[in-house]
Amino acid sequence: MQPFRLVNAQSDKQAVAFAGTCEVITYDSAQLNIFAAELSHCQPHWHEAPELVYVLKGALSLTVHQQEVTLNTGDLAYIGPDLIHALENQHQCALLTLQFSPQLGHDTHTLPAGFGHFRADTPVARQLVSQCFTLLERVLQPDAAFFALQACTYSLLVLLEEQLGQQPQIPAGTATDSREEMVIRQSIAYINEAFAEPLTIADLADRAYLSYSHFSRLFKKVSGYSPSDYLAMVRVNHAKPLLKSMQVPITDIAERAGFAEHRAMLAAFKKYCGVTPTEYRKQYYADFEWRADDERVTSTPNKPLALSSARKMMQASILNQ
């Protein structure tokens, strides 16, 4: 699973970069970052900017704070600030993402927090899509009036705030001590980088200078996952592309992904995917290509889409409602 590195399709400037697993975002003059892409996958990460994701076509799996939802064409999801989340393509997925700078809020009223998803066939989803479409049209205008763009942005945020208040919320998952929270986020970044090593929870606790029990409690509080669950899921995510080739033995894949033995990978796949590694391979191997020259399996990367193309896809979706 690779970080979600995207390029703003209009300006050809880098719009999103990663420092570890904390996403660093560059905003335009209106304090927005809007991009479209064909999704492959996006590893667990977080950022201070809340974001609204709209599925232009296909389907994706979104995991936020241990809650997993499947989003299909026309569905939307709002992910509040600093929530750890991951995305994975389920079927030919393309998405539009709107990220809102925290600067759009102020000291007495921050941007909406929490998580919510909205199905395409609901009135609120149609309202949100209409607002997103209007905002996107403003962004695409070369001489867009600044305050008109701001008005569209705040109208969308007002609607989101109203609707999020009506949805059951997941726990915020943040620690009361910011230093301790940073320690756990550093541990998450380390797991994402060193997953193939023989890591243990005791090792991770030692690196964080915390006791095993305190580290485990704090990790769950900050991320929503137990450290053992998170480590296993990262390894599963790294094993998936390798399984999509018939050329690599499953025992080798288990070793490359960091599992101590094949049985550990088998148990993890059954727990988190509902299928065995062999069943997963049979279902999906045709989507990936084996590269014999360097003995690596590569998947299709996240491919940027022009915002003008996203606009056409949104317009077609609105007309079909």
Automatic annotation (TrEMBL):
Q: Name one Pfam family in it.
A: Cupin_2
Keyword terms: DNA-binding, Transcription, Transcription regulation
The source's superkingdom equals: Bacteria
- RNA-binding among the record's keywords? no
Instruction: Name the InterPro entries for this protein.
Output: Cupin_2 (IPR013096), Homeodomain-like_sf (IPR009057), HTH_AraC (IPR018060), RmlC-like_jellyroll (IPR014710), RmlC_Cupin_sf (IPR011051)
Q: Which residues form the HTH araC/xylS-type domain?
A: 185-283
Mind listing the GO molecular function terms for this protein? DNA-binding transcription factor activity; sequence-specific DNA binding
This one is known as HTH araC/xylS-type domain-containing protein
Q: Which organism is it from?
A: Alteromonas lipolytica
Q: What is the lineage of its organism?
A: Bacteria, Pseudomonadati, Pseudomonadota, Gammaproteobacteria, Alteromonadales
